[in-house]
């Protein structure tokens, strides 16, 4: 029989006081797979510019990424820069991203945010104004708790609030730990 992740409420019901001996080995396996957190991490390889067709529109951060399979479980990477959560129950994800970025020009304002299923999550947005960085990339860090369901994806998006000048990322580490609700 398949081991099935379940919600906390379902697990508590299945593991009632057990006065009749109803807690089976299967129930215990379901508890284990439910309590074990899904997690994943991806990193950017190389340096890539993200271009904008228009200003004030979020765009997926460009670049080739790799999923760290040594630490990832219950999470896949269906596309570059994207983590997908494969557990069959709702989860809350502790999400972090660290980037190193360099705008193609001076005096531009960019916003960075997490996106769920391709749509920017406004509450996670961080706006940065970059003057003259003299060729030295700036660090951006994002942190958030995000609710996800099975199959949801999370990624990092960026927008240029000034014009369509590109921004180059030389580092991206996107990490997630999901906890069953």
Task: Spell out the blueprint of helices and strands.
Layout: H1 8-14, H2 25-35, E1 38-45, E2 48-50, E3 59-60, E4 64-67, E5 75-79, E6 82-85, E7 91-103, E8 108-116, E9 119-120, E10 126-130, E11 138-148, E12 153-160, E13 167-180
Antiparallel strand pairs: 1-4, 1-13, 2-13, 3-12, 5-6, 6-12, 7-11, 7-13, 8-9, 8-10, 8-12
Question: What report would you give on this structure?
Answer:
The protein is mainly beta and 181 residues long. It has helices at 8-14, 25-35, and strands at residues 38-45, 48-50, 59-60, 64-67, 75-79, 82-85, 91-103, 108-116, 119-120, 126-130, 138-148, 153-160, 167-180. The strands form two sheets. Strands 3, 5, 6, 8, 9, 10 and 12 form a seven-stranded antiparallel beta sheet that branches. Strands 1, 2, 4, 7, 11 and 13 form a six-stranded antiparallel beta sheet that branches. A hairpin with a 2-residue loop joins strand 8 and strand 9 (119-120). The two termini are 23 Å apart. The relative contact order is 0.27. The mean pLDDT is 90.
């Amino acid at each position: 029989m398949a081991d099935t992740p379940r919600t906390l409420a379902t697990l508590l019901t299945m593991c009632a006081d057990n006065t009749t001996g109803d807690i089976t080995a299967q129930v215990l396996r379901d508890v284990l797979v439910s309590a074990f957190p899904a997690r994943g991490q991806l990193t950017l390889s190389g340096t890539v510019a993200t271009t904008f067709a228009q200003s004030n529109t979020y765009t997926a951060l460009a670049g080739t990424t790799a999923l760290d399979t040594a630490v990832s479980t219950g999470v896949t990477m269906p596309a570059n820069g994207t983590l997908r959560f494969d557990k069959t129950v709702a989860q809350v994800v502790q999400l972090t991203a660290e980037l190193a970025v360099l705008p193609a020009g001076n005096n531009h304002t960019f916003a960075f945010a997490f996106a769920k299923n391709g749509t920017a999550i406004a509450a996670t947005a961080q706006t940065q104004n970059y003057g003259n960085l003299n060729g030295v990339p700036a660090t951006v860090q994002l942190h958030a708790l995000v609710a996800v369901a099975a199959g949801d994806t999370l990624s990092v998006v960026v927008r240029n609030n000034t014009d369509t000048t590109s921004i180059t990322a030389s580092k991206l580490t996107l990490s997630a730990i999901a906890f069953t609700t």
